[in-house]
Structure prediction request, 234 residues.
Amino acid sequence: MRAGPKLQKLAQSLGDLQVISGAASLSIERLPLAAEGLYTCQALYDTEQGAKLYYYYIHLRVLAEGSLVWLRCGLENGTGPLYFLWEHETHSGLVSTVSQGNSSVFNMTEVNRNHTGWYRCVARNQVNQERSDRIWLDIIFGPDIPQIDVTPYSITDRGYSAQERQTVSLLCQAQSNPPSQYVWFYNNSQVYTGPQFTITRILRMHTGTYACLAQNTYLNTRSMKTISLTVYCE
Prediction:
């Protein structure tokens, strides 16, 4: 009987881990610094000569925007002259060439969120070429200045407005990796935790300023957006 994938308690220190069903893949969300390091995949194959065990290795680096990064393509042997090509693959599967030449080192200065993705080295000479395993580069950033969406709403010279006894929803979104955590304030007093703050049957007493604080707990950074909401009687 197959019991399915099993995660040890120690794995919780690496973030929110999930084994992807039907694939030899591991997903890590809310990536902390502790997740950086060498990962090993153990694979068992049935062959005509019997079961064979193979190991695959990949090194994960966790970086923040603005860091200096270099990737080196190492070869055990190879007859020169050697030519190196680096490929970048995005979340959506788009593959592009980001570096090529006779240097085995690929330098990236002041990396940003667009550098997130898989990287692979292709080394070749006049008679052969070899492709490396992929390495995942995760860029930590944010949070950006939040965007607040009010539903339903009307706009006045003071900001947003709503009618009494309506249900008003305030949605806060700020780009960040790991994802932002949100805190809402009403007239400088904390009233809610989470991205969407809903007020059922809003009253005139709810008129005031509403602020959304977005926090990146990994970088210990934060940003805030404030709006004014006026409630009118029917």
The chain has no helices and 20 strands. The domain at 147-232 is CATH 2.60.40.10 (Immunoglobulin-like). The mean pLDDT is 85. The radius of gyration is 25 Å.
